[in-house]
Design a protein that fits this description.
Belongs to the peptidase M17 family. It is a single chain. By secondary structure, the chain is of the alpha/beta class. It has two domains: about 120 residues, Leucine Aminopeptidase, subunit E, domain 1; about 325 residues, Aminopeptidase. The chain contains 15 helices and 19 strands. α13 links the parallel β14 and β15. α4 packs parallel to α5 and α5 packs antiparallel against α10. The longest helix has 19 residues. It starts with 12 loop residues before the first strand and ends with a helix.
Length: about 450
């Protein structure tokens, strides 16, 4: 089902969005019949409540949606989306009750409430149509919904149908849609082209490892997005237990998120040169798996001691980041489902990011609040640099001790970026563990809307 608005001239029932303390005031302004109907129905304005208002002959003439208290709304990114599935089928137009500064995101939440992952069975929620308010940029909101649906679909698809080959197909489909140039380096060609760590991580899998390289645009600042595309992570020879392997189809969430972000950048025709790099691999177990204690030489020339084959995401990202950095981009962004430590620190709802660019950090945090896409800055903490230096090699891919795991991973990646004008790394979860308004259980975009919003001020677009 396309996540789109109804035509602006469509016939629609007015939808009054009402907080609990406003129900009595709203009723006092209505006819006696409507007032008695609302009172008899027990409508309280609670978050996630809805009520159809009958007109002459019993057919609906309007609807109410509960908006809850400010404290209740703070717990949901898209409060209005809680009421949308409860309304009768039809088309609605928001008549009142949503503040102007929340209107765009509430409309996005309404569209996203209609998302369902239907590749294997019909799962489209029953959400009525919405006429976009004239005060929002409706097409921009639809593009955001399209990008989010793309990201969710990719993450939700199991590895049997979303291995490195299928991820390449998805990237090529996006490239074809927007006229991107695509190059893919596959298998042993990774060695001849000097991507040794991507090759080492992916060589044991049935599908060959690859580096997907997409380009779009001919003018403007160069924005390069690097997304971790580990299509399934067994942990390698440091095999994960079953409890940790269950969600590893989502370990390509970084790739899914940068593809969603790229979709938005191109659909909105931002004045940038865009590059997307995705190292696509499966971390599998075979006779030629890379091993603990191996020392790999990266594209950049830095040597890396492997102290845990389950810390493979930073290895494939490192080669891709070094490649991206050689071009001296104006903005380089990496996104990855990289560490469990980030989830311990911030939980599944909040995506940490790292950057040395103070102005970009401020823009990102403000944009995250505006776009209902929260991000939180963590530090590139210099005193921890020693933790990623094992002595026998330049770098350690999995420092012992178990502390500050997200920070040490980010410091590891920063070692491969020297020439980019600005660099930011996002350690995302890309998964909604429980259903919430506008956010079905399953794959989730984390960070792309905040990044999109922050690009214009960061790059003077």
């Amino acid at each position: 089902m396309p996540l789109t608005f109804a035509p602006v001239d469509a016939e629609a029932w007015p939808l009054y969005v009402v907080e609990p303390e406003e129900v009595e005031v709203w009723c006092a302004q209505q006819t006696d019949d409507i007032r008695r109907w609302v009172e008899a129905s027990g409508f309280s304005g609670a978050l996630g409540s809805a009520l159809m208002i009958p007109g002459p002959g019993g057919t609906p003439q309007a609807a109410l949606a509960g908006y809850g208290t400010a404290r209740q709304r703070a717990r949901d990114r898209f409060p209005l989306a809680a009421a949308a599935p409860l309304l009768a089928p039809g088309t609605y137009r928001i008549a009142s009750g949503v503040p102007d500064d929340a209107l765009a995101m509430e409309c996005l939440g309404w569209l996203l409430a209609g998302y369902g992952f239907s590749r294997y069975r019909e799962a489209t929620p029953r959400v009525p149509a919405l006429v976009p308010p004239h005060r929002i940029n409706a097409r921009r909101i639809e593009i955001m919904a399209e990008a989010e649906a793309l990201t969710r679909d990719l993450v939700n698809t199991p590895a049997a149908d979303m291995g490195p080959e299928a991820l390449e197909v998805a990237a090529r489909n996006l490239a074809e849609t927007f006229g991107m140039k695509a190059e893919v380096i596959t298998g042993d060609a990774l060695l001849t082209r000097n991507f040794p760590m991507i090759h080492a991580v992916g060589r044991a899998a049935a599908q060959a490892p690859r580096l997907i390289d997409l380009r779009w645009g001919n003018s403007g600042p160069l924005v390069t997005l690097v997304g971790k595309g580990v299509c399934f992570d067994t942990g390698g020879l440091n095999l994960k237990p079953a409890s940790s392997m269950g969600l590893m189809k989502k370990d390509m969430g970084g790739a899914a998120n940068v593809l969603g972000l790229a979709h938005m950048i191109m659909a909105l025709k931002l004045a940038v040169r865009l590059r997307v790099l995705i190292p696509a691999v499966e971390n599998a177990v075979s006779g030629n798996s890379f091993r603990p204690q191996d020392i790999l030489t990266s594209r950049k020339g830095l040597t890396v001691e492997i102290n845990n084959t389950d810390a493979e995401g930073r290895l494939v990202l490192a080669d891709a980041l070094a490649y991206a950095d050689e071009e001296k981009p104006d903005l380089l962004i990496s996104m990855a489902t990289l560490t469990g430590a980030a989830r311990v620190a911030l939980g599944p709802d909040l995506a940490p990011f790292y950057t040395d660019d103070e102005s970009f950090a401020i823009e990102l945090e403000q944009a995250g609040r505006r776009q209902a896409d929260p991000v939180w800055r963590l530090p590139f903490w210099e005193p921890y640099e020693a933790l990623i230096e094992p002595g026998i090699a330049d770098l350690d891919n999995a420092p012992s001790g178990g502390m500050a795991g997200s920070i040490t991973a980010a410091l590891f990646l920063r070692r491969f970026v020297e020439q980019a004008l600005s660099y930011a790394h996002f350690d995302i979860y890309s998964w909604q563990p429980r259903p919430a308004p506008g956010r079905a259980k399953g794959g989730l975009g984390q960070g792309p809307r905040a990044i999109l919003d922050a690009l214009a001020p960061a790059l003077d677009l």
